[in-house]
Amino acid sequence: MIEVTTYDTAIIGGGLAGLSAAIRLAGMGHQVVLIEKEKYPFHKVCGEYIGMESWNYLNQLGLDLKGMVLPKIDQLQLTAPNGNSFLSSLRPGGFGISRYLLDHALMEIAKKMGVHIMQETKADAIDFDGKFRVSYNNEGVQKECISKTCVGSFGKRSNIDIKWKRAFLDQQDKRLENFIGVKYHLQTSWPENRIGLHNFENGYCGISKIEGDKYCLCYLTTAANLKKEGNQIAQMEANILSRNPHLNSIFLNSKVEESFPVTISQVSFQSKTLVENHVLMAGDAGGMITPLCGNGMSIALHTGKIAADLTDVFLKGKITREEMELKYRQEWQRKFGIRFRSGRVLQAFFGSNEKSNGFVGFFKQFPFLAQPIIRLTHGRSF
Ligand SMILES: Cc1cc2nc3c(=O)[nH]c(=O)nc-3n(C[C@H](O)[C@H](O)[C@H](O)COP(=O)(O)OP(=O)(O)OC[C@H]3O[C@@H](n4cnc5c(N)ncnc54)[C@H](O)[C@@H]3O)c2cc1C
User: Fold this and answer.
1) Which of 36, 92, 201, 240 is the most buried (most CB within 10 A)?
2) Summary count for the chain: helices (H), strands (E)
């Protein structure tokens, strides 16, 4: 027996894009359901450095960021596998907060705003026949909800992408896909206001402070690097990452928290469609920027906001569905097109040891070029 409930908007995936869109739409008076396959709070692979551009918006959503006493980060240290190092100010910089804390706090706000949160619930299919039918399995019972609009915020790669055979899964630029991500929370000694970006053969590793006395260390590398080391993370860290003396020193002088590392695979930076089957794709589901740019979280929040605002105008009958979809694509390209292209170009400089050594050496020689490049990858307050 299939149970059916009807909403104004169904949001599939409760990361930053989905949660922020849900809070905004509920605040505008709409009936919203948010479906998330995990149970909050939970850890996610992410460097947990969030650009200042998101500060005001997160406060508007109802977070008391000041009260959370979070580290402000305004310095960038770039290091190369050969030990070369470059230090720069980072303007406007960012702050550190774990996804465990941030996503959970936003979920609590969404719940208070009347969003129907379904946790530990995986959406199996999203079909459109003038309305959306989202089917999901909950405690062994197959159910369905119906909505007038739908936001797809299910992250970098999900079962829905595979079901829809989305084009990014088949793209041929191998330089932009098949990465893995690894994250730790640890205690170490590292300047509180600094984000480190340490390069190693075929990858880079970020470190910066989050809440409490914890640091987040998170790296991205190719699946081939891990395979070369017998699929053993510890072996890869010892044989490849630790060749960078800065990283070696961090690994030797840190205490890792329980339940880490957390890992992800099949990370791809290929471009994606922004509307699929009439669903507005927000956050990583609409495009994943290389972590090198350090602002995927801000883009997730910002795209969730744009999707929510256009959904609201559609639900009020002021634009057609076609207009909503077109405006979403246009707005997304206008706000993020250049940042994504810059991210892909920058990613190409981080591969072999020679490239990374050359890149860091270049900035040591021409330090005044760092700020314009940082500006290209960061956005304005929204
Ligand atoms: C190694 C690495 C380091 C990074 N470092 C940073 C950083 O320092 N700063 C920064 O700003 N960005 C960083 N990013 C990027 C950032 O993590 C993402 O851009 C951001 O998390 C995107 O948010 P989202 O809401 O789109 O997706 P997510 O946060 O991934 O949320 C998607 C949600 O959808 C759920 N889901 C998936 N499928 C289904 C389904 N079928 N049904 C129900 N739920 C489903 C998932 O469980 C998940 O909770 C990093 C990324 C990587 C890979």
Assistant:
1) 36
2) 11, 17
Amino acid at 268: S
Domain of residue 89, CATH code: 3.50.50.60
Q: Cβ < 6 Å from ligand 1: which residues?
A: 12-18, 35-38, 44-50, 122-123, 153-155, 158-160, 181, 206, 218, 220, 267, 283-285, 291, 294-298, 300
- Rounded to 10°, the helix 321-347/370-377 angle is 150
Q: Quick one: tokens of 185?
A: 């929370």
Give the integer Cα–Cα distance in Å for 136 and 46.
27
Q: Is residue 259 part of a domain?
A: yes
Split at pLDDT 50, 70, 90, the class of 173 is low
Bond prior to 92 in cis (omega within 30° of 0): yes
Beta strand pairing status for 32-35 and 116-118? parallel
Which candidate, 210, 194, 182, places its Cα nearest to that of 99?
Answer: 210
Average pLDDT over residues 186-211: 96
Residue with tokens 């908007």: 9
Q: Which domain holds residue 38?
A: 3-377
Global pTM value: 0.96
Residue among 355, 346, 352, 353 nearest 373 (CA)? 346
Query: Helix, strand or coil for residue 214?
Result: coil
Distance CA 218, CA 196 (A): 10
Q: Is residue 173 in some structural domain?
A: yes
> What is the signed CA dihedral for 210, 82, 85, 359, rounded to 10 degrees?
-100
